[in-house]
Amino acid sequence: MAPTEYGIVYAVHIITVQFGSVVSKVCECLLRRGPLSSRDISRLAESEINHNQVKDILYLLIQHNCVQAFSVEPPDGSENKAITQYIVLFNNVIHRVRYNKFSRVVNEELGSQCGAVLDGLLSNGRLTLGQLIERDRDSENTIGSEAIRDSLEKLVAARFVERIPSPEPVLGKKEEGPAAKKRGAKAAKILKEPESLEERILEAATPVEAIRFPHIFKEDLSSSLADNDSNISEGKRKQRDVESSDPSDEVIWRPNFEEFIRRLRHKACVEIVKERRDEGCAIVLKAMLEVGRSQEKKVKTDKSVPMSMGSIYEEVIKTEAGRTMLQERVEACLEQLSASSSYLPAFVIETDDSYIVDFKSIISVAQKDELEAVIMGRYGKEAFRMFRYLSQEDRFVETDKIADAALTEKKNTPQILLKMWKDSYLHMQKLAVTGVYVPFLLWKVNKLIVSRQMLDEMYHASLNLSLRLTHEVDSEKELLLLPMAKLEGALKERVNKIKAKRMLLSSTRFKLDDSIMLFHDF
Amino acid sequence: MSKRKRPEPKSSSSMGGINEDEKKLLTLIRSKEGMGATTFEMKVGTSIQPTLITRAIASLKRNHLIKEVPNMNNKGIKHFLGVEFEPCKELTGGDWYIDGALDVDKIEGLKEICVKILERHKNRVVTLDVICSYFEKVMDKDKLTKEQTKEILKNLVLDNVIMEVKSSGLSEFSSTRIGEVCYKLTGKKSGGGEARAGAFASVPCGVCPHVALCSPGGVISPTTCVYFQKWLDF
C-alpha cells in the first residue's frame, strides 16, 4: 500500500526533526517519486544539493535503515551496467517514533542489559559487535564486553536483532521464466496478489534464515559466513560478498523491526481480548500466541496454525497467572473465545480438536471501535447508526432504506450521509432511473477506502501533535532554561503548565501511534 | 391496504360539473388508490396537454374530489389522491411518522423501555416474544406490532446498546430454543466488554470538522488551532 499524502508529510517531518532539513529533502524526493538513482536525486530534489552530498545523505539514511539500495538486472545482451537505485523504506521511517516501545518489549522480556544493547543499535542504526563493545567502554555505566556479547546473542536468538540485509540486491527481470507459466491454474490461484517493488527488494535483500539469525555465535564466525553466502544465495544475493570487503570483516547487526511489530501485534491482541472478554481468556490467548509464534511467516498473518488443547494448556501453566488454571477453565475460556454475536466475532476458530487464533477478527474489533468513535464524535448519534448499519450490510443501500433502518428523520438523512461522503467515510453511487425525476443515491462503507482515510487523518493528527508540542515548548523556551528551584509563584505555575501540556501532547501521540499501527502494521 | 373513509360519491351528481379532461384525470387518480398520481404520471397516462392538466387539477381540488399529499421521501413531488383514500406508507413514511415528521420522542421512549426490560433480566438473555408480551401488557392504546418491536430492537443494536445473540441452548440460554435470536445488553457485565474510547477520537483532530482544511502554516494550522487551545487550557 503506497503511503498516503499525510503519511509522506509525517515521515518527512520525522526525518526533519531528527536529521535536519537537507536530509529530509532527499527523503521527500524519494517518497514522492519512488526509487531513483543518486544522480536523479540530486537533479530532482527541490533545493541545490550536489551529487556528493546526496551520496553522503543516502549513506546516512542507509545506516539508519531508512533507505535500501538495489539494482535491476539489465536485459540480456545489453552492455549497459546496472545502475544503483535507492528506495526509501516508509515503514522504517515511521518506526523511528516507536523506538521506546521496541525498547520496552526487550527490557520486559530479556532484561535491561539486552535493552541497553538494543538502544545502542536503535540510536546508531547498525553496528558490529566490536563497535557495540567500544560504545559500552565509552559510556558511564559499562557492562563489559562479555555481557554485551551475551546480550547480543540473546537478542539474535529471540530475533530482535538481525544481520543487516544485502547492501545492494540485484532484482531479476519482471517477467518470470517459462517455469512459472507452466504452473497450473490451481497454483496460480494460490499465489497471492503481485508483490510491490518494495516487497520484492526487501525479499531479495534479506538473507536466508540461518544467516539472518545465526545460531553459533563467535566473533570469528563472520568470515566463514561470508564465504558461505556466495554458495547459498546464488543469483539475487550474489552481492553479499561485497560485505567481506569490510575492513573489520565483522558481522553488522541491526534491529529487526519485523519481530518488534509482531510482538506489539500480539500484545495488542491480548489487550483487546482482555478488554472484550476477561483476564482468563487473555491468558489463554497469550499462551496460544506463544505456541504459534515460531510458525508465523509474516507479520500480517490472518490466522495462526492449528493448536491442540494439550499444547495450549502446557503453555498456559508456564506463566505465573496461568498456573492456577485447571484444564476445565482453559476449555471454558476457549469456548468463550470461539463464541460470536452481533457484537463480537469469534476470536478463536475451533476445528476438530484444534484451535486457531483469528488475528484478523481480533484486530478488526479494535479497528471498528476506533472508526466508530470518530464517526460518533464527528457526525453524531444518527450518523453512527447509519454507519453501523451500512458496515453491517456491506453492500450499496438506498438513502430511504438507510433512514428506515436507522430510524432517522428522512429529511435529514441525505445531509448526514453526504457529510460523511464528503470526508471519504462513505462510498456513494448515483443511480439514474428513467421516469424518476431525481436519481437514487446508493451508499456503502468501503472498508479499504475508510481505513486509508482514517490512516491519513491519523498521520495528520500525529503531525499536528508534534508541531503543537514544538510550538508550545518554543513559546516558553526562555522560561524552561531557568533552574526550576529558583522559580516562584506565577513563573513556577507557568513551568508546571507547560510541563503538563508537554506530557499530554506526547502521551496522546504515543497512544495515537498505537492506533496507527492497528490500521497500518497489524 | 388503504381504507375508504366515506362512500364513493355518486358519479352522476358530483361529477356533473366537470368536463371530459377532468373526468379522465379523476379516473386515473382513483385507480392509483393510496399512492395517488403525480403530474408526471398524469401527463404520461393521459394525452391531455400540460396546461390543461394544471387547470383540471385546480378545478378538481376546488370541487373537493382530490387532495394533495406531499411525498415523504421526495418533498418536491406532489401526489394527488382521491379524497376517499388514505395516503399509503410510501407517502407518509411509515408507522413511525406523524404528520410527515418522525416521532422521535415515541421511538426514544420505547427504546428506553426495552433497555429497562433487559436491565431487569441482567443475567439472562431475552427473546423477542418476551419483550412483545411485555408491550402488550403495558400499552393500552396503539399497540406495537411484532415487526415494530423488532425495529426498535434493531435500532438499539445499531446504537451499540444491546446485542443480538443466537441461542446455543446452554447456560444462559437454558430457557430458549437453540438457534433462536435473543437480546442482551452490551457492556462489561454482559461479557462482551465495552467498545474502546478510541485514541484518535480523543485527539481534537479526530473530531475536528475542519481537519481537511488544516495544514502546517495554513489558514487553519496546529499552532493557531482553537480546538487545541481549548484542549490544552489547564
From TrEMBL, chain A:
The keyword Transcription applies. Residues 11-71 form the RNA polymerase III subunit RPC82-related helix-turn-helix domain. It holds the Pfam family WHD_POLR3C. It comes from the Eukaryota. One of its GO terms (cellular component) is RNA polymerase III complex. Residues 371-439 form the DNA-directed RNA polymerase III subunit RPC3 winged-helix domain. Component of the RNA polymerase III (Pol III) complex consisting of 17 subunits. Belongs to the eukaryotic RPC3/POLR3C RNA polymerase subunit family. DNA-dependent RNA polymerase catalyzes the transcription of DNA into RNA using the four ribonucleoside triphosphates as substrates. Specific core component of RNA polymerase III which synthesizes small RNAs, such as 5S rRNA and tRNAs. This is DNA-directed RNA polymerase III subunit RPC3. It comes from Eutrema salsugineum (Saltwater cress).
TrEMBL record, chain B:
It comes from the Eukaryota. The keyword Nucleus applies. InterPro entries: RNA_pol_Rpc34, RNA_pol_Rpc34-like, WH-like_DNA-bd_sf, WH_DNA-bd_sf. Keywords: DNA-directed RNA polymerase, Nucleus, Transcription. Its main location: nucleus. GO terms for cellular component: RNA polymerase III complex. SUPFAM superfamilies: Winged helix' DNA-binding domain (SSF46785). One of its GO terms (biological process) is transcription by RNA polymerase III. It is found in: Nucleus. PANTHER family: RNA POLYMERASE III DNA DIRECTED , 39KD SUBUNIT-RELATED (PTHR12780). Belongs to the eukaryotic RPC34/RPC39 RNA polymerase subunit family. This is DNA-directed RNA polymerase III subunit RPC6. It comes from Eutrema salsugineum (Saltwater cress). The lineage of its organism: Eukaryota, Viridiplantae, Streptophyta, Embryophyta, Tracheophyta.
